[in-house]
Design goal:
Layout lengths: L1 E3 L3 E7 L13 E7 L9 E6 L3 E6 L4 E5 L3 E3 L2 E6 L4 E6 L7 E6 L11 E5 L26 E3 L6 E3 L6 E6 L3 E6 L4 E5 L14 E6 L8 E6 L3 E6 L4 E6 L25 E2 L5 E5 L8 E13 L7 E6 L3 E6 L4 E5 L17 E4 L8 E4 L3
Length: 366
């Protein structure tokens, strides 16, 4: 989903559960359509998308669920949706400072009591969130920036005191952290190169991404098994699994699946990326495709556009530029990128600056 200020969101992709408000069910949305949220305050502040449902959070503090589950709740400061858990940061019940972190079963429709709740301290705040009392960090990073919430036990996970986190993103098996100095740390599973350390080994603790040393980053995003970050100067770096072109690097199309050359061993490029070869290149020689990119690789957008935001779905990626264009690439079935029936494409323009000249500033993928 993409956002244009103030409060307008567009949705596209698989909507078989009605994940996008107003989209209806059992359909695919191949082109961006405005999200219609009649029951939510019109000024939607944040959208958190999971596979089968979406959480919409308004500046008035109301969250509404749409898709395989429904429900609404007031007094919310933030929301984070996943298939395993719906996590809300809500006004504290009862006297005292702070807020309450709640974990709900998505199927509960926000009725009854949460599966787990804990009072958290709010420290950093910014001006543009619900009720005028928002925080710099967004879930799954907690407002104190000293812990984060996980969809798998233990739900509450503290961070080392020396990690001054600004943003934290969770993939299917790995985590990315951006600190106050613009440095990137990664940990978790690494079997698809998603950690960016040049190996396929797992890391139990946050490890500094040495390949990006000296390049301050402004954004990080974690896909299912790939990673993206945006530098303060607008450059994009990608690494991890490229099975569906989610890194915008050459990969096999659906038509080429199963045509890998028999007996051809997987090799490595000079930068460590894993290469697959197929039998159908234009020259008649086996064509090389990148399956795994274990080091960060610089990615250029068309026309040299500078990026400001990035978001990753399980196997696709979206980037917003300084001038408000939205580019998408990766898995395009069914409708997750803006062109249907295509497994891989290079970065392609999906949405342009609005006629009113208000650039889009955010994207949310699953």
């Amino acid at each position: 989903m993409s956002k244009e200020r103030p409060g307008a969101w567009f949705g596209f992709g698989f909507c078989g559960f009605g994940q996008a408000l107003g989209s209806g069910g059992a359909r695919q949305v191949h082109s961006p359509e405005p999200v219609r949220a009649p029951e939510v305050d019109a000024d939607v502040w944040r959208v958190s998308a999971s596979w089968s449902y979406t959480a919409f959070l308004s500046r008035a503090g109301q969250v509404q669920l749409s898709g395989s589950t429904s429900g609404a709740a007031d007094g919310c400061r933030d929301a984070w949706a996943s298939e395993a858990l719906l996590v809300l940061l809500r006004d504290r019940r009862g006297p005292g400072p702070g807020a309450e972190l709640q974990a709900w079963a998505p199927s509960s429709a926000l009725r009854g009591e949460p599966l787990w709740a804990q009072t958290v301290v709010l420290e950093a705040e910014r001006e543009d969130g619900p009720g005028g009392e928002t925080h710099n960090q967004t879930l799954p990073l907690l407002p104190c920036a000293r812990a984060y919430v996980s969809p798998r036990p233990p739900l509450y996970r503290p961070l080392a005191p020396e990690l001054r986190a600004r943003r934290l993103e969770l993939g299917a098996e790995h985590s990315l952290l951006l600190d106050d100095a613009g440095r990137v740390y990664s940990w978790g599973g690494g079997r698809h190169g998603q950690l960016g350390h040049g190996t396929l080994e797992a890391e139990l603790e946050p490890r500094l991404l040495e390949a990006l040393q000296g390049l301050p980053m402004a954004e990080v995003a974690a896909g299912g098994w790939h990673s993206v970050c945006v530098s303060e100067t607008g450059d994009i770096y990608v690494w991890g699994w490229n099975e569906s072109g989610q890194l915008a690097l050459p990969t096999r199309s659906l038509a080429d699946d199963g045509k890998t050359v028999a007996g051809e061993a997987t090799g490595l490029n000079e930068d460590g990326s894993e290469v697959e070869k197929t039998a159908e290149a234009e020259t008649g020689a086996p064509a090389a495709f990148i399956a795994v990119q274990p080091f960060p690789a610089l990615l250029d957008l068309p026309l040299g556009s500078d990026a400001i935001k990035a978001s990753c779905g399980s196997r696709h990626t979206a980037v917003v530029t300084r001038t408000g264009e939205l580019y998408t690439w990766g898995w395009g079935l069914p409708g997750m990128s803006h062109k249907a029936l295509c497994r891989w494409q290079p970065p392609a323009l999906c949405l342009e600056v609005t006629r009113e000249g208000k650039p889009r500033t955010e994207a949310s993928c699953y």
